[in-house]
């Protein structure tokens, strides 16, 4: 079990978030196969509620039920 990266959150991580500073973008997808030092593993609650800095885009890769593929949902941050 990998814990959520949020301080004091004991929940199990289910998603990984990374930042692309050059493109002002945060990408949230399924849990990475292994921990990465520059990524954040998040539980379901924190993955759903997370946001990015003002002016950045958040791209959420939502898994399709019954398949391993995902579709991207782009959400501009205001």
| Biggest pleated-sheet summary | 5 strands, mixed
Order of strands in the sheet with the most strands?
A: 3-1-2-4-5
The radius of gyration computed from the alpha-carbon positions, rounded to a whole number of angstroms, is: 12 Å
Structural class by SSE content: mainly beta
Any idea what the shape is?
Answer: globular
Strand content: 35-45%
Oligomer: single chain
Uncertain spans: 64-72
The count of β-strands is: 5
Give the overall pLDDT as a whole number. Answer: 83
Order of helices and strands: EEEHEE
Total count of helical runs of at least 4 residues: 1
**Straight-line N-to-C gap:** 34 Å
Q: Layout of SSEs?
A:
Elements: E1 15-20, E2 25-30, E3 40-42, H1 44-49, E4 57-63, E5 70-76
Parallel strand pairs: 2-4
Antiparallel strand pairs: 1-2, 1-3, 4-5
């Amino acid at each position: 079990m990998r814990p959520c990266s949020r301080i004091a959150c004991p929940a199990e991580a289910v998603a990984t978030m990374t930042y692309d500073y050059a493109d002002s973008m945060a990408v949230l997808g399924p849990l990475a196969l292994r921990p990465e030092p520059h990524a954040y593993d998040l539980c379901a609650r924190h993955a759903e509620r997370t946001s990015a800095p003002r002016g950045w885009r958040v791209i959420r890769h939502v898994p399709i039920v019954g398949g391993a593929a995902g579709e991207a949902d782009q959400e501009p941050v205001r």
